[in-house]
Amino acid sequence: MSESDTTHRMIPPVSAYIRTLNEKRMIAEVVRAALTVAREVIVVDSGSTDGTIELARGAGATVVHQDWLGNGGQKRVGEDRALYDWVLDIDADEVVTPEFADEVAALFEKGEPPHAVYNTPLVNVPPVGAPWYGYGQSVRHKLYNKTKIRIPDHKAWDQFKIPSDMKIGKLKHAILHYAFDGAELFITKVNKNSSTRAEHVKDKPLFWLYIRILLGFWIYFGKRYFVNGLWRGGLYGFAFAFMSGFGKWLRDVKMYERIMKERGQSLYTDEEPD
Protein backbone atom coordinates (compact mmCIF):
# COMPACT_ATOMS: atom_id res chain seq x y z
CA MET A 1 0.00 0.00 0.00
CA SER A 2 1.44 3.35 -1.00
CA GLU A 3 1.26 6.52 1.09
CA SER A 4 -1.46 7.88 -1.20
CA ASP A 5 -3.55 4.73 -0.69
CA THR A 6 -3.43 5.29 3.07
CA THR A 7 -4.46 8.94 2.88
CA HIS A 8 -7.38 8.29 0.50
CA ARG A 9 -9.16 5.69 2.59
CA MET A 10 -10.72 5.97 6.00
CA ILE A 11 -9.07 4.31 8.96
CA PRO A 12 -11.76 2.03 10.45
CA PRO A 13 -13.11 2.52 14.01
CA VAL A 14 -10.65 0.08 15.57
CA SER A 15 -8.40 0.32 18.63
CA ALA A 16 -5.18 -1.72 18.64
CA TYR A 17 -3.51 -2.74 21.88
CA ILE A 18 -0.02 -4.09 22.55
CA ARG A 19 1.54 -5.52 25.72
CA THR A 20 5.15 -4.54 26.32
CA LEU A 21 8.07 -5.07 28.63
CA ASN A 22 11.43 -4.00 27.20
CA GLU A 23 10.38 -4.33 23.55
CA LYS A 24 12.52 -1.63 21.95
CA ARG A 25 13.60 -4.00 19.17
CA MET A 26 10.48 -3.43 17.06
CA ILE A 27 7.93 -1.38 18.97
CA ALA A 28 8.16 1.76 16.82
CA GLU A 29 7.66 -0.20 13.59
CA VAL A 30 4.81 -2.20 15.14
CA VAL A 31 2.99 0.94 16.30
CA ARG A 32 3.37 2.75 12.99
CA ALA A 33 2.07 -0.25 11.07
CA ALA A 34 -0.87 -0.67 13.46
CA LEU A 35 -1.89 2.95 12.89
CA THR A 36 -2.59 2.11 9.23
CA VAL A 37 -5.54 -0.02 10.38
CA ALA A 38 -6.48 1.41 13.79
CA ARG A 39 -7.43 4.92 14.89
CA GLU A 40 -5.52 4.52 18.13
CA VAL A 41 -2.80 2.24 19.49
CA ILE A 42 -2.66 1.57 23.22
CA VAL A 43 0.57 0.19 24.64
CA VAL A 44 0.09 -1.54 28.00
CA ASP A 45 3.55 -1.46 29.54
CA SER A 46 4.56 -3.30 32.70
CA GLY A 47 7.77 -1.44 33.51
CA SER A 48 10.07 -1.11 30.50
CA THR A 49 13.49 0.41 31.14
CA ASP A 50 15.03 0.12 27.68
CA GLY A 51 13.37 3.04 25.90
CA THR A 52 10.27 1.14 24.78
CA ILE A 53 7.91 3.75 26.23
CA GLU A 54 9.59 6.69 24.51
CA LEU A 55 9.78 4.86 21.18
CA ALA A 56 6.11 3.86 21.35
CA ARG A 57 4.97 7.39 22.14
CA GLY A 58 7.18 8.80 19.43
CA ALA A 59 5.54 6.46 16.91
CA GLY A 60 2.06 7.64 17.90
CA ALA A 61 0.89 5.27 20.63
CA THR A 62 -0.80 6.03 23.92
CA VAL A 63 1.20 4.34 26.69
CA VAL A 64 -0.38 3.23 29.97
CA HIS A 65 1.49 1.61 32.84
CA GLN A 66 0.14 -1.57 34.37
CA ASP A 67 2.04 -3.86 36.71
CA TRP A 68 2.03 -7.39 35.34
CA LEU A 69 -1.36 -9.09 35.78
CA GLY A 70 -0.63 -12.11 33.62
CA ASN A 71 -0.99 -12.68 29.89
CA GLY A 72 -4.75 -12.38 29.81
CA GLY A 73 -4.93 -9.68 32.46
CA GLN A 74 -2.69 -7.30 30.53
CA LYS A 75 -4.82 -7.68 27.43
CA ARG A 76 -7.92 -6.95 29.50
CA VAL A 77 -6.40 -3.59 30.38
CA GLY A 78 -5.94 -2.90 26.68
CA GLU A 79 -9.58 -3.77 26.04
CA ASP A 80 -10.75 -1.52 28.89
CA ARG A 81 -8.71 1.45 27.67
CA ALA A 82 -9.81 1.05 24.05
CA LEU A 83 -12.01 3.86 22.77
CA TYR A 84 -13.71 1.67 20.16
CA ASP A 85 -15.70 -1.55 20.48
CA TRP A 86 -13.66 -3.21 17.76
CA VAL A 87 -10.13 -4.04 18.88
CA LEU A 88 -7.04 -5.52 17.27
CA ASP A 89 -4.83 -7.65 19.52
CA ILE A 90 -1.22 -7.52 18.39
CA ASP A 91 2.06 -8.39 20.05
CA ALA A 92 5.18 -6.25 20.10
CA ASP A 93 6.76 -8.40 17.38
CA GLU A 94 3.81 -8.43 14.95
CA VAL A 95 3.63 -6.06 12.00
CA VAL A 96 0.40 -5.25 10.17
CA THR A 97 0.84 -5.60 6.41
CA PRO A 98 -0.63 -3.10 3.93
CA GLU A 99 -2.81 -5.86 2.49
CA PHE A 100 -4.21 -6.70 5.94
CA ALA A 101 -4.93 -3.02 6.63
CA ASP A 102 -6.77 -2.65 3.32
CA GLU A 103 -8.80 -5.81 3.94
CA VAL A 104 -9.92 -4.65 7.38
CA ALA A 105 -10.79 -1.19 6.05
CA ALA A 106 -12.92 -2.78 3.33
CA LEU A 107 -14.67 -4.86 6.00
CA PHE A 108 -15.94 -1.67 7.66
CA GLU A 109 -16.85 0.24 4.49
CA LYS A 110 -20.47 -0.94 4.58
CA GLY A 111 -20.91 -0.50 8.31
CA GLU A 112 -20.69 -3.05 11.11
CA PRO A 113 -18.82 -6.23 10.08
CA PRO A 114 -21.09 -9.30 9.96
CA HIS A 115 -19.07 -11.37 12.47
CA ALA A 116 -17.91 -10.56 16.01
CA VAL A 117 -14.53 -12.30 15.63
CA TYR A 118 -12.15 -12.68 12.70
CA ASN A 119 -9.39 -15.22 12.26
CA THR A 120 -6.09 -13.80 11.09
CA PRO A 121 -3.14 -15.75 9.67
CA LEU A 122 0.23 -15.06 11.31
CA VAL A 123 3.18 -15.54 8.98
CA ASN A 124 6.52 -16.18 10.67
CA VAL A 125 9.51 -14.18 9.48
CA PRO A 126 12.85 -15.92 10.18
CA PRO A 127 15.98 -13.92 11.07
CA VAL A 128 17.35 -14.74 7.62
CA GLY A 129 15.44 -15.22 4.40
CA ALA A 130 11.92 -14.44 3.22
CA PRO A 131 8.70 -14.73 5.27
CA TRP A 132 7.28 -18.25 5.45
CA TYR A 133 4.14 -17.66 3.42
CA GLY A 134 1.99 -20.76 3.02
CA TYR A 135 3.64 -22.87 5.71
CA GLY A 136 4.62 -22.81 9.36
CA GLN A 137 2.01 -20.19 10.09
CA SER A 138 -0.67 -20.07 12.77
CA VAL A 139 -4.14 -18.55 12.96
CA ARG A 140 -5.28 -16.28 15.79
CA HIS A 141 -8.42 -14.36 16.71
CA LYS A 142 -6.87 -10.93 16.30
CA LEU A 143 -9.77 -8.69 15.31
CA TYR A 144 -12.90 -8.81 17.48
CA ASN A 145 -15.73 -6.85 19.06
CA LYS A 146 -15.02 -6.54 22.78
CA THR A 147 -18.71 -6.08 23.58
CA LYS A 148 -19.38 -9.59 22.24
CA ILE A 149 -16.36 -11.51 23.53
CA ARG A 150 -13.35 -10.77 25.72
CA ILE A 151 -9.91 -12.15 26.47
CA PRO A 152 -9.94 -14.40 29.58
CA ASP A 153 -8.53 -12.87 32.75
CA HIS A 154 -5.91 -15.62 33.09
CA LYS A 155 -2.27 -15.68 34.14
CA ALA A 156 -1.15 -17.91 31.26
CA TRP A 157 -3.80 -17.98 28.55
CA ASP A 158 -4.50 -14.94 26.41
CA GLN A 159 -6.72 -16.46 23.73
CA PHE A 160 -10.47 -16.76 24.12
CA LYS A 161 -12.64 -19.78 23.43
CA ILE A 162 -15.31 -19.20 20.82
CA PRO A 163 -18.87 -20.06 21.94
CA SER A 164 -20.45 -22.82 19.87
CA ASP A 165 -23.15 -20.49 18.55
CA MET A 166 -20.73 -17.76 17.42
CA LYS A 167 -19.66 -17.70 13.79
CA ILE A 168 -16.10 -16.68 12.97
CA GLY A 169 -15.07 -14.59 10.00
CA LYS A 170 -11.83 -15.22 8.15
CA LEU A 171 -9.35 -12.66 6.94
CA LYS A 172 -7.25 -13.61 3.93
CA HIS A 173 -4.23 -11.39 4.45
CA ALA A 174 -1.64 -11.89 7.16
CA ILE A 175 0.12 -10.13 9.97
CA LEU A 176 3.89 -10.70 9.92
CA HIS A 177 5.31 -12.29 13.07
CA TYR A 178 8.96 -11.44 13.77
CA ALA A 179 9.10 -13.91 16.64
CA PHE A 180 12.84 -13.62 17.20
CA ASP A 181 16.04 -12.26 15.71
CA GLY A 182 18.11 -15.30 16.63
CA ALA A 183 18.15 -18.57 18.51
CA GLU A 184 19.21 -16.98 21.80
CA LEU A 185 16.15 -14.71 21.94
CA PHE A 186 13.79 -17.48 20.88
CA ILE A 187 15.07 -19.91 23.53
CA THR A 188 14.71 -17.18 26.16
CA LYS A 189 11.14 -16.66 24.99
CA VAL A 190 10.12 -20.33 25.03
CA ASN A 191 11.79 -20.80 28.42
CA LYS A 192 9.71 -17.96 29.89
CA ASN A 193 6.49 -19.15 28.26
CA SER A 194 7.01 -22.74 29.41
CA SER A 195 7.45 -21.56 33.01
CA THR A 196 4.25 -19.50 32.90
CA ARG A 197 2.17 -22.33 31.47
CA ALA A 198 3.63 -24.99 33.74
CA GLU A 199 2.70 -22.82 36.73
CA HIS A 200 -0.77 -21.64 35.78
CA VAL A 201 -2.28 -24.20 33.39
CA LYS A 202 -4.43 -26.97 34.85
CA ASP A 203 -2.28 -29.89 36.00
CA LYS A 204 -2.02 -32.96 33.82
CA PRO A 205 -2.17 -36.44 35.44
CA LEU A 206 1.31 -37.69 36.33
CA PHE A 207 1.06 -40.76 34.12
CA TRP A 208 0.24 -38.51 31.18
CA LEU A 209 3.21 -36.27 31.99
CA TYR A 210 5.47 -39.35 32.06
CA ILE A 211 4.37 -40.19 28.53
CA ARG A 212 4.78 -36.61 27.36
CA ILE A 213 8.27 -36.30 28.80
CA LEU A 214 9.38 -39.58 27.23
CA LEU A 215 7.75 -39.17 23.83
CA GLY A 216 6.24 -35.71 23.56
CA PHE A 217 9.19 -33.84 22.12
CA TRP A 218 9.22 -35.88 18.93
CA ILE A 219 5.48 -35.40 18.53
CA TYR A 220 5.73 -31.64 19.09
CA PHE A 221 8.67 -31.37 16.72
CA GLY A 222 7.04 -33.59 14.10
CA LYS A 223 3.85 -31.56 14.10
CA ARG A 224 5.72 -28.32 13.48
CA TYR A 225 8.19 -29.76 10.98
CA PHE A 226 6.02 -32.11 8.93
CA VAL A 227 2.37 -31.17 9.54
CA ASN A 228 2.89 -27.39 9.64
CA GLY A 229 5.32 -27.60 6.74
CA LEU A 230 8.46 -26.14 8.29
CA TRP A 231 10.48 -28.63 6.26
CA ARG A 232 9.98 -26.11 3.47
CA GLY A 233 11.97 -23.57 5.47
CA GLY A 234 15.27 -25.35 4.93
CA LEU A 235 17.82 -25.59 7.71
CA TYR A 236 16.28 -22.73 9.67
CA GLY A 237 12.85 -24.32 9.38
CA PHE A 238 14.31 -27.42 11.03
CA ALA A 239 15.89 -25.33 13.79
CA PHE A 240 12.67 -23.39 14.43
CA ALA A 241 10.60 -26.59 14.63
CA PHE A 242 13.16 -28.11 17.00
CA MET A 243 13.14 -25.09 19.33
CA SER A 244 9.34 -24.87 19.24
CA GLY A 245 9.03 -28.54 20.15
CA PHE A 246 11.58 -28.12 22.92
CA GLY A 247 9.50 -25.29 24.43
CA LYS A 248 6.40 -27.47 24.68
CA TRP A 249 8.43 -30.38 26.08
CA LEU A 250 10.02 -28.06 28.65
CA ARG A 251 6.55 -27.02 29.82
CA ASP A 252 5.76 -30.67 30.59
CA VAL A 253 9.02 -31.16 32.49
CA LYS A 254 8.46 -28.04 34.58
CA MET A 255 4.90 -29.05 35.40
CA TYR A 256 6.15 -32.48 36.51
CA GLU A 257 8.80 -30.84 38.71
CA ARG A 258 6.27 -28.54 40.34
CA ILE A 259 3.74 -31.28 41.06
CA MET A 260 6.39 -33.54 42.58
CA LYS A 261 7.74 -30.74 44.78
CA GLU A 262 4.25 -29.78 45.95
CA ARG A 263 3.67 -33.38 46.97
CA GLY A 264 6.94 -33.44 48.86
CA GLN A 265 8.33 -36.19 46.66
CA SER A 266 11.88 -36.53 45.45
CA LEU A 267 12.57 -35.96 41.78
CA TYR A 268 14.96 -38.93 41.89
CA THR A 269 13.90 -42.53 41.55
CA ASP A 270 16.44 -43.79 44.09
CA GLU A 271 17.39 -42.43 47.48
CA GLU A 272 20.85 -40.94 47.76
CA PRO A 273 23.33 -43.11 49.68
CA ASP A 274 24.18 -42.20 53.28
Automatic annotation (TrEMBL):
Which is one Pfam family of this protein? Answer: Glycos_transf_2
Span of domain Glycosyltransferase 2-like? 16-133
Q: Does the keyword Transferase apply?
A: no
Keywords carried by this UniProt record: Membrane, Transmembrane, Transmembrane helix
Family the UniProt entry places it in? Belongs to the glycosyltransferase 2 family. WaaE/KdtX subfamily.
Q: What is this protein called?
A: Beta 1,4 glucosyltransferase
Q: Where are the transmembrane segments?
A: 205-221, 233-250
Q: Does this UniProt record's set of keywords contain Membrane? A: yes
Q: Which Gene3D superfamilies match?
A: Spore Coat Polysaccharide Biosynthesis Protein SpsA, Chain A
